[in-house]
Amino acid sequence: MTQRRRQLPTSEELRIWRDFIETTESLRAELAARLQSESSMSPGDYAVLLALSDADGRGLRSSELAATIGWERSRLSHHLGRMERRGLVRRENCATDSRGAEIVLTTEGADAFRKASIPHLRAIRELFVDALSPDQITAAGDLAATLRSRLDKAREQPRARPPRVEVNEDS
Q1: In this predicted structure, what is the pLDDT of residue 114?
Q2: Which among 18, 32, 92, 103 would be 20 to 30 A from 164, CA to CA?
Q3: CB of 79 closer than 8 Å to CB of 44
Q4: Angle value at C-alpha 106, between 103 and 110, nearest 5 degrees
């Protein structure tokens, strides 16, 4: 048989994978807890406000906003309703398409984002940047870029049935 067998990760690769995932989740949880306690803002609130503050005119169509932050549109719609009630964003009719809505950052939302950003960025420095050497920061960036590229390519390809994984009991 000349076909290459697809191998499962080794126990060392699985150990590293698990450590990577658990550490990433711990880091995200700590950043989320600090963001909530210091600004009463969820990571979702922050992601929405960041995307809107970066957008031209401080607004995006809801479909563009969902794509930017990587959320399903239904999840975003519910979240925006809560943010709208708090005065952080508002929905406006889209000037170029009567079927769509544009989500706009309010003055209150911009102020809340600004106030949340300083402690959030300090926490990122403390928990991530200061924990790593400059070479490790560069390596982390390379790792993230490589993984993101692979994931982007996988999303572009139609879903096929996964290849059969053969387990070699001797290894």
Answers
A1: 97
A2: 18
A3: yes
A4: 110
